[in-house]
Amino acid sequence: MAGRKGKIVPGVAxxxxxxxxxxxxxxxxxxxxxxxxxxxxxxxxxxxxDSTVDDDTGxxxxxxxxxxxxxxxHDISAIYVDADTNGNKAEFWVVI
Length: 96
Fold this sequence. Notes:
Radius of gyration: 13 Å
Oligomer: single chain
Number of helices: 0
């Protein structure tokens, strides 16, 4: 991914169907860090993990967040999100 080092790129992933994991981002961001936040308007928890994410992993309730730092940089397209409720969202900010 072309871009300046230290640039912050925001994004949103929407889980259309609860119980079906979606990629946080399909863009190949080589990230040095990322913050993921469960949208304030969500009605239940979201879950962060790999492609097998389910309700046993990485639970975030509405308005909670988690931050990861990577060294070396990490491809965030390997991060997935799932939700308890259709339409819940994960907001994210990537440092590239």
